[in-house]
Design a protein that fits this description.
Elements lengths: L2 H16 L3 H12 L9 H13 L4 E5 L5 H7 L7 E6 L2 H13 L6 E5 L2 H10 L7 E4 L6 H10 L6 E5 L15 H15 L3 E10 L2 E10 L2
Parallel strand pairs: 1-2, 1-4, 2-3, 4-5
Antiparallel strand pairs: 5-7, 6-7
Helix pairs in contact: 2-5, 3-4, 6-7, 7-8
The structure holds S-adenosyl-L-homocysteine, 3,4-dihydroxybenzoic acid and magnesium ion.
3,4-dihydroxybenzoic acid (DHB) binds next to loops.
Amino acid sequence: MSTDTWNAVDDYLTATLVKPDADLEAALRDSEAAGLPAIAVSAPQGKLLHLLARIQGVRNILEIGTLGGYSTIWLARALAPGGRIISLEIDPKHAAVARANLARAGFANQAQVRVGRALDSLEELARESAGPFDFVFIDADKQSNAEYFAWALKLSRRGTVIVVDNVVRKGAVADAASEDPAVQGVRRLNQAMAAEPRVAVTAMQTVGAKGYDGFALALVVA
Ligand code: SAH
Ligand code: DHB
Ligand code: MG
C-alpha cells in the first residue's frame, strides 16, 4: 500500500463526497502563494472536523494553531447562528493570511485570530472568561500538546469535545525511545489524557493526502 494510493483515494473521496468549495480552495491557494507550509488538514479531515463540530451543535469553538485558516473555515461553517471561533497563532504572517481567507469565506465577524504564543493567549482567554468552549481543536507545536490539553480542559464544560491532530507521526508515537520532540510531546499528551478522569478518550490512525498520522478524540465527561 503506497502513498500514491492514499492520495488517489483522498482525491476520489474529496471529489465525490467532501466537495470543498471555492473559498476553501482559495484559502489553500493563497496560503501556498504566501509561502506557508502545506500542513493544513486534508479536505476529508477538514470535513470530519466540521461534522464533529456540527454534531456537537457548536456555538463557541477554540482552535490552537491557525496557519492559513483552512481548518478554521471548516470549523466556522459548523457554527450555529451567532456562534464564534477563536483561533490562536504565533506567526503574524500566518494570521494575516488566515484573516483574509476567513473574510473571503464570510467569517470576518465570527472568527477571531489571536496572535501570540498560544500558552499566553490561553491564559488571556481564561482571564477574560472566554470559555467554556463547546469544541477545541489542538493543532500547533506538538511539544506543548500536554499543556494545550490542560488549558483546553480548563476552558471546557461537561460535554466539550477536544480533538488533537497529528498524534501518530508515521507510527513513531509507539516508540518510547524516540528523541523527536514532537513524538515526545504526543506521548506526554497521551499520558496526560489517560491520567485525566474528566475525559473519555481514544485515538485513530489515519492515512491519506497528509501521509500516515492520526488524531485523538476526547469527550469531557465531568
Ligand atoms: N490547523 C491548521 C494547521 C496548523 S499548522 C489547519 O489544519 O489548517 C500549526 C500552526 O501552529 C502554524 O501556523 C504555527 O505557526 C502555529 N504555532 C506553532 N507554535 C505555536 C505556538 N507556540 N503558539 C501558537 N501557534 C503556534
Ligand atoms: C506538521 C504539523 C501539522 O499540524 C500537521 O498536520 C502536519 C505536519 C509539522 O509540523 O510537520
Ligand atoms: Mg495538524
